[in-house]
């Protein structure tokens, strides 16, 4: 598989590179664009402030420019938190998308969004302050109406970005379960 993996608002940190390496070890080709031009952050608040400073349109433009050279290959879009939201936006707009792997995040869905049984897998903490139960229920229904084939995995007691071992959110058991399930998902595409 060809995978476009987007970082969270923490920036392109070692955990993103480690995730890409783990996927490469499974035989996938993985790209990790740096939407923040080398900036990384120690807190979600700092990262969110920088993301807001750059602006949604600029970040989407950067993501599209990073993905465009590879989209003809049929990409699996993937990402962490904010990066998952970015991946979702691109996957729903790319008729050649092969799949969508969301780690720790989702995004709004345009009313007009349609896909042809796009395989989607979401991994999220339970509870998650950024992905509330009400939001996830509505998101799941909207993705289904758009034509996606969605699987949702929840991890009780894990922190928001629980796959990053350098963050306080880290949960080793939830992270390992996530990667085991995600790798299985990618093998089906």
Automatic annotation (TrEMBL):
It is an enzyme of class 3 (hydrolase). Residues 3-188 form the Dienelactone hydrolase domain. GO terms for molecular function: hydrolase activity. Its EC number is 3.1.-.-. Keywords: Hydrolase. It holds the Pfam family DLH. InterPro entries: AB_hydrolase_fold, Dienelactn_hydro, Dienelactone_hydrolase-like. The keyword Cell inner membrane does not apply. PANTHER family: ALPHA_BETA-HYDROLASES SUPERFAMILY PROTEIN, CARBOXYMETHYLENEBUTENOLIDASE-RELATED. This is Dienelactone hydrolase family protein.
